[in-house]
Amino acid sequence: MLENQLLKIAQDLGSPVYVYDAAKIESQYKRLTDAFKDVKKLKLNYAVKALSNISILKLFKSLGSGIDTVSIQEVQLGLAAGFSPDQIIFTPNGVSLDEIEEAAQLGVKINIDNLSILEQFGTKHPNVPVCIRINPHVMAGGNANISVGHIDSKFGISIHQIPHILRIVENTKMTINGIHMHTGSDILDIEVFLYASEILFETAKQFKNLDFIDFGSGFKVPYKAGDIETNIEELGKKLSSRFNDFCKEYGKDLTLAFEPGKFLVSESGNFLVKVNAVKQTTSTVFAQIDSGFNHLIRPMFYGSHHDIVNISNPSGRERFYTVVGYICETDTFGNNRRINEITEGDILCFKNAGAYCFSMASNYNSRFRPAEVLWYNDKAHVIRKAETFDDILRNQIAIDFSKKKEKPTTV
């Protein structure tokens, strides 16, 4: 999108506001499918948790995507968006057996990562095929909070516990129709990913009724100029060749599945905010904006970088600013950033705001969550209205404290 288009959206709708570029989402989806075009059966299941607006889900459905869900509510949202149950995979962690059974009753694919739950589910529902999430004990990801395949992770069933899985399968007579892994986000070295894939292939040989192998995702996108990213094209070439060889060895054309989230939507997102004040101290110039970590928590949560651009003054001279929010704790979005000169009232644009930004927004400090806009076919479509004070109060119940408890009468 052009900066003048973003500026007009901020002027028309106010700030803060999230804006997503549908064309970028479509191009990222095509880039991934092109990278694996040599695979006979490829299935991309968009990770709903990255950005769960129903219009975004409908866009992915139009592209031919399935969806990866982690809660029963995301399953229901997918169904509401028009996905059929067989286009939805349910990959929770630490949920109750009741929630998994509820998802199974809806007809979606089930992915289990816990031996106890696997045995309970298989005992009660031996005729429902399930996928198993394996922990390959491979460390990948740019931050400890988003690296989920290492030995101390809460996710997945350890590869060292494969004999236990086989015992459960034999005892319950359940069918395992898929094997899955997810090593973590921001994968840089594709050789590490390929190494983990070999572990998954070896595991898959233990199960004779597979329909698919799910390699998770975690592909890194660039966050600033010159930043490194996952080489999807090289990974596609190498993994496709290895996958095709494995299918020949297995004796069946399996589906190669991925569950990308950030890779598909991160770069599409722009978060627009207004500068409330420029505050200079003895050592720092602060640009204080009309938002905070209640709207975009990633920089505070795990140190993510978002380029910040002054779209109100794109040709101004650069100065150093520390961009901060209005929350009554420290919420710094960028320290000493080179940004075109900022004046009060300017609109700043945070880049890479499509994934895990609005989806992790909250009403902290009783602030409203912002509107969401999809730029599609050269037009701005509001896909979520900004909240109002009625939304803050909607589910609260006020007790009437004016009525005092009457003292008991004595005779």
TrEMBL record:
Family annotation (HAMAP family): LysA (MF_02120)
SUPFAM superfamilies referenced in this protein's UniProt entry, alphabetically: Alanine racemase C-terminal domain-like, PLP-binding barrel
Required cofactor(s): pyridoxal 5'-phosphate
Residues at the active site: 328
Enzyme class (EC, first level): lyase
Domain Orn/DAP/Arg decarboxylase 2 N-terminal, chain residue ranges per copy: 23-266
InterPro entries associated with the record: Ala_racemase/Decarboxylase_C, DAP_deCOOHase_LysA, De-COase2_C, De-COase2_N, Orn/DAP/Arg_de-COase, PLP-binding_barrel
Associated pathway: Amino-acid biosynthesis; L-lysine biosynthesis via DAP pathway; L-lysine from DL-2,6-diaminopimelate: step 1/1
Binding annotation for substrate: 298, 302, 329, 356
Binding site for pyridoxal 5'-phosphate: 218, 356
Reactions the enzyme catalyzes: meso-2,6-diaminopimelate + H(+) = L-lysine + CO2
GO molecular function: diaminopimelate decarboxylase activity; pyridoxal phosphate binding
Function: Specifically catalyzes the decarboxylation of meso-diaminopimelate (meso-DAP) to L-lysine.
UniProt EC number: 4.1.1.20
A biological process term (GO) from this entry: lysine biosynthetic process via diaminopimelate
Subunit (UniProt): Homodimer.
Key words of the record: Amino-acid biosynthesis, Decarboxylase, Lyase, Lysine biosynthesis, Pyridoxal phosphate
Keyword Amino-acid biosynthesis included in the entry's annotation: yes
Protein name (Swiss-Prot/TrEMBL): Diaminopimelate decarboxylase
UniProt keyword Membrane present: no
Family: Belongs to the Orn/Lys/Arg decarboxylase class-II family. LysA subfamily.
PANTHER family per the UniProt record, alphabetical: DIAMINOPIMELATE DECARBOXYLASE, GROUP IV DECARBOXYLASE
Annotated ranges, domain Orn/DAP/Arg decarboxylase 2 C-terminal: 18-354
Chain's gene name: lysA
Modification N6-(pyridoxal phosphate)lysine occurs at: 49
